Amino acid sequence: MKYLLLIHVNPATWESLHEEERNEVFRGHSEFVRATTESGEMVRTEALADPSNSATVRVRGGVPAVTDGHYIEAKEFFSGYYLVDCESKERAIELAARIPDARYTAIEVRPLMNQGGAEI
Fold first, then answer.
1. Which of 9, 26, 28, 58 is 20 to 30 A from 46 (CA-CA)?
2. What's the CA gap between 76 and 114, in Å, rounded?
3. pLDDT at 97 exceeding the cut of 90
């Protein structure tokens, strides 16, 4: 089954980390990619640019309205993901716990589904 491991970051928490702690997070991501690639569970991973580079599109009355920047009023933002293919939700949760950001923020585990609504 495929699971999306969504990484949410709190900028205030990230800024409070010392340089060595940040470097440890980066090293941890490299190790996570290596381990899940070797196990055959890694499908894909991407990091996202800072939310200040985003745009939000809403269509109201057939007219698109575009707002620059992050639209959700929240302390955390979605910063990247890992797409893994593993045998169970429990294994996906185990993998999510190995993502170094999990020590400082939330990792959301969501199964993928096909157009018929079945998990894939």
1. 58
2. 28
3. yes
